[in-house]
Design brief:
- With 369 residues, the chain is an alpha+beta fold.
- It folds into three domains: 1-25 and 254-369, no CATH class; 27-37 and 184-250, Gyrase A, domain 2; 41-176, no CATH class.
- It is built from six helices and 25 strands.
- The protein has helices at 29-32, 62-74, 199-213, 239-247, 332-341, 346-358; strands at 2-6, 18-20, 27-28, 33-35, 41-50, 89-98, 107-114, 125-132, 138-145, 151-154, 159-162, 167-176, 189-194, 218-220, 225-229, 249-250, 257-261, 266-269, 274-275, 278-280, 285-296, 307-318, 324-326, 362-363, 365-368.
- A six-stranded antiparallel β-barrel has the order 5-6-7-12-9-8.
- Strand 10 and strand 11 (159-162) form a beta hairpin.
- The radius of gyration is 32 Å and the shape is flat.
- The two termini are 42 Å apart.
């Protein structure tokens, strides 16, 4: 007898994470904003990884063959590209971030990613690779052994792979060769940019700075930008002023928002979420399908054949759940307690919140990932 049971309701199949913020703590300005000029720049380069154990690009990858032939030619070695075997070599793209105020001689981490058909770059070494910025100028040079957090092994019958063996890192693998000129010396004003634009937070930042310095030197220009007038005595060396501003603490404001990831059943709710008066009921439906074999035998001396015919029985059960009344203006903790009292799982909560939002009773932004 074959028995198939299909339960038509949302169940938890992945790790479910709930983050509820009961108390709001203060944050430093340096953690929620940055000064103009304090930003990273992207660097990229094209290079070769050598020393692979037969897991490199195939011979049909012509750009790897051409690159290796040109590299050897620059080293004074004349080689016919048709005679080059590249199974121990892989063409890669090298990426890095040039941190703000980076100086010559500093080192940064780089990421190495295969762009050919190499199976793995485990055990490889990146040859000297120039790293260019958006302006085409070379700002760094990368080279060194690659660290890969994965592997791939296989034979004629199968393959075992963990993570991505075609992507690796070189800690401190790039040396900065060119600086991006920038200085705060002599400026009379600065701009502070919030990581999360918000008019209320911008005003809080400006008010906190003005109270700290005892004068109106900060004024918000929009939801993301605050203009700061540097005191005259600190304009020649504004580092002390910047450090003081960064260390100030405020309580940033945030919008009422719920983020839902339906793939993993994850729900993250902000503390400002409110629900208007609404009636709520949520039940589970279970459908049970049972198959039993039935032998169909023809009458004696008849031309028919004996066959096995499955008989299917369908049973439907619905869980009875009373209707709950959710009062208006309740907090997020009260919402969660009420939904848990109904026996709602995280998957159920996703559908319940979507239905409450559709009914116009959820006073929050609902973002589905």
């Amino acid at each position: 007898m074959k028995r198939k049971v299909f339960k038509v309701f949302f169940t938890l199949t992945f790790l479910n994470l709930f983050i509820f913020l009961g108390l709001t703590s203060a944050a430093r300005i340096k953690d929620i904003a940055r000064f103009s000029g304090d930003r990273s720049n992207m660097l990229v380069g094209y290079g070769l990884v050598v020393g692979l154990n037969g897991t490199g690009d195939k011979e049909k990858t012509q750009f790897t063959v051409s690159t290796l032939a040109n590299f050897l030619d620059n080293m004074g070695i004349k080689v016919d590209p048709a005679q080059i075997k590249i199974k121990n070599v892989a063409a890669v793209m090298v990426t890095a971030k040039l941190p703000p105020f980076a100086r010559q001689g500093m080192r940064v981490d780089v990421q190495v990613s295969s762009i050919g058909d190499a199976k793995s770059i485990v055990g490889g070494t990146l040859l000297m690779t120039p790293l260019q910025g958006p302006d085409g100028q070379v700002y760094g040079v990368a080279q060194g052994p690659i660290s890969v957090g994965g592997f791939v092994f296989g034979g004629g019958g199968g393959t075992v792979q963990q993570n991505h063996p075609t992507v690796g890192y070189i800690p401190n693998g790039a040396l900065i060769e060119r600086e991006i000129p920038f200085s705060y010396d002599g400026v009379d004003h600065l701009y502070l940019t919030l990581n999360q634009p918000d008019f209320t937070s911008a005003k809080k930042v400006a008010d906190t700075i003005n109270r700290s310095f005892g004068t109106s030197i900060a004024s918000p220009e929009d939801s993301a930008t605050i203009k700061l007038q540097i005191p005259e005595g600190q304009r020649k060396n504004p580092i002390d002023f910047i450090a003081t501003v960064e260390g100030l603490e405020i309580i940033p404001d945030s919008v009422a928002k719920i983020v839902i990831n339906e793939r993993t059943g994850t729900i993250v709710m902000g503390e400002n979420v409110r629900i208007s008066p609404v009636a709520l009921a949520h039940g589970n439906l279970t459908v049970t399908i049972t198959e039993r074999p039935y032998v169909s035998q023809p009458l004696p001396f008849s031309p028919g054949q004996t066959v096995v015919v499955p008989q299917t029985q369908v049973e439907v059960k619905e869980q009875k759940v009373p209707i709950a009344i959710v009062g208006g203006g309740v907090t997020i903790s009260q919402v969660v307690e009420g939904l848990n009292a109904l026996g709602a799982t995280p998957r159920d909560l996703i559908n319940i919140l979507q239905a409450i939002k559709a009914a116009g009773a959820l006073q929050a932004e609902l973002e589905i990932m």
